[in-house]
Write a structure and sequence with these properties.
Blueprint lengths: L1 E6 L29 E6 L2 E5 L5 H8 L6 E3 L5 H4 L5 H8 L3 E5 L1 H10 L1 H5 L8 E5 L3 E4 L2 E10 L2 E10 L2 E6 L7 H6 L5 E5 L12 H11 L3 E5 L7 H7 L4 E3 L5 E2 L2
Parallel strand pairs: 3-4, 4-5, 5-6, 10-11, 11-12, 12-13
Antiparallel strand pairs: 1-2, 1-14, 2-3, 7-8, 8-9, 9-10
Pfam family, one: Lactamase_B_2
Protein name: MBL fold metallo-hydrolase
Keywords: Hydrolase
Length: 254
């Protein structure tokens, strides 16, 4: 089992509109960040996490046309507004795409994108939706979900397990609950939100994340959902062993 980081950036991406690179070196390709999304692959199974606004570009870069399922972590625009690109996946599959989300997230998505879930004006639905339980299996991948505080809402954190490999994905949260801490202990790979160095009300900052890494002891950690203050080379020079800034196209474990 492997995970590909499709997008490692925060909601505005890097650079921001206006070619605003902030502290990021524009000559370093790994500083160019699409909005956050990952792809979990195990044998012939592909599971997409979130339909970012950059989904089309992400699929072209990864050279994929089909997936077996999509899981949405929450309904914020940078994690779901690429949902229309699932139409092309529908055409490739010749069937609706299986889509999973917690009930509140699913209700928000079906309200905002009713045509994708129910069809409209003679067009068939492109998504076959289902509630995301605490545990399910897709292909040979066992998935465990945990609710994460994210400001006034909750996102969902995920653990993927197959063939003795455990990969955790934790994005868009601002508090580490006991259930989350239990899920993220001793992972082979932890992909985790580290928005910036300065504190933020709904995302973890770098120092807090590094404290969790020391506590949970994953073998490899990749930071994602980073903004334009988080320069790739600068981070590489200061991060501890086993922790690296994630970038678009990074495949883990390696």
């Amino acid at each position: 089992m492997k995970v590909r980081i499709l997008g490692s950036g925060t909601s505005s991406g890097v650079p921001r509109i206006g070619n605003d690179w902030g502290a990021c070196d524009p000559t370093e390709p790994r500083n160019r960040r699409l909005r956050s999304s990952i792809l979990v692959e195990h044998r012939d199974t592909r599971i997409l996490i979130d339909t970012s606004p950059d989904m089309r570009e992400q699929f072209l870069a990864a050279d994929i046309a089909t997936i077996d399922a999509v899981i949405w972590t929450h309904d914020h625009a940078d994690h779901c507004h690429g949902i229309d690109d699932l139409r092309q996946v529908y055409h490739a599959l010749r069937a609706p795409v299986a889509g999973y989300a917690r009930p509140d997230t699913l209700a928000a998505l079906t309200d905002s994108f009713a045509y994708a879930f129910s069809g409209r004006d003679g067009y068939p639905p492109t998504i076959a939706a289902a509630g995301l339980p605490d545990r399910l299996t897709i292909g040979g991948v066992a998935i465990t979900a945990v609710d994460q505080p994210h400001g006034s809402i909750h996102s969902v954190g995920l653990l993927f397990e197959a063939d003795g490999v455990a990969i955790g994905y934790a994005t868009d949260f601002n508090e580490m609950t006991a259930d989350m801490a239990s899920l993220y202990q001793g992972l082979d790979v932890w992909i985790v939100d580290a928005l910036r160095r300065a504190p933020h009300p709904t995302h973890p900052d770098l120092a807090t994340v590094l404290g969790w890494v020391e506590r949970f002891a994953p073998r490899q950690t990749a930071l994602v959902h980073m903004d334009h203050t988080m320069d790739y080379a600068t981070l590489c020079a200061e991060l501890p062993d086993g922790v690296e800034p994630g970038y678009d196209g990074l495949v883990l474990p390696r």
